[in-house]
Amino acid sequence: MQNPPPSQPGSSSSGIGGLDPKVAGALSYIWIVGLIFFFIEKENRFVRFHAMQSVIFGIANTVIIVVLMVLTFILTIVMGIGGAMVGGVLGLIVSLLGWLIWLLFVLVILAMLLGLVFAAVKAYGGQMYKLPFIGNMAENIANK
User: Is the separation of the CB atoms in 104 and 27 below 8 Å?
Assistant: First the structure.
């Protein structure tokens, strides 16, 4: 049986200590590991793609989480002040709205975590799965 070329996910090893490219691709979704793998791996496009996708995904997640934290904090303070000033049923509604904003924040974080796990599973399966919005950017950077 012929071995596939080194740029394919099924090749026997990557340039990262003889690690299987599928394992390296999946491990790349640990954000800092992906950054390291991108700079270490020079030959295997599969590993480079998943490493870069992980880095872009990690940066996007960090920006989104920081923005959501700031907005949630500001809205919680505004809702709290508004609820205290209004009181009664309207105050209760304002407080519930504040809790719903926090719930939205938690759901967004969980969705990002699920996306990360999903992409890692696809990489481990040997697939060049592109995440929405960032997959094409990662592919362009990895192929340079």
Answer: no
